[in-house]
């Protein structure tokens, strides 16, 4: 029984040892010349403004969650598109129900004003 899992355990051990060895060697051999400019946070090429502890509007998080929610539908559409011919009319009806539910949710969110950026 252990013989069947031995190659997997060996591979995991080699991967962990390689990761640890890479970290240790890079910290020992790598150049260490910290400066004020190098230790400054990087913000897409722009000079940092304010602190990193700045609060964001709740609207930002709402839009992000809604984006994830409505973007997940693409994850469900790809396998359905691949198996479309096998699923037949039943698969088409099920995906239609799924899209209608998502559309109703989208209309609800739109009517509530969650997509307005003010």
Task: Furnish the topology, listing elements before pairings.
Layout: H1 2-29, H2 58-82, H3 84-112
Could you give a quick summary of the protein structure above?
The chain contains three helices and no strands. The mean pLDDT is 85.
Protein described:
The protein is mainly alpha-helical. 69% of the residues lie in helices and 0% in strands. It has a single domain (2-112), classed as Methane Monooxygenase Hydroxylase, Chain G, domain 1. The model has no long low-confidence stretch (mean pLDDT 85). It starts with a helix and ends in a 6-residue tail after the last helix. The protein has helices spanning 2-29, 58-82, 84-112.
Q: What is the mean pLDDT?
A: 85
What is the succession of H and E elements?
HHH
**What structural category do the secondary elements indicate?**
mainly alpha
The major sheet is characterized as: none
| Integer-rounded radius of gyration | 25 Å
Shape assignment:
flat
> What percentage of residues falls in helices of 4 or more residues?
55-70%
What is the rounded distance between the termini?
A: 62 Å
Strand percentage lies at under 5%
Number of helices: 3
Q: Tally the beta strands.
A: 0
Overall tally of structural domains: 1
Spans of at least 5 consecutive residues with low confidence: none
Second-tier CATH architecture: Up-down Bundle
* CATH class assignment: Mainly Alpha
Q: How is the CATH topology named?
A: Methane Monooxygenase Hydroxylase, Chain G, domain 1
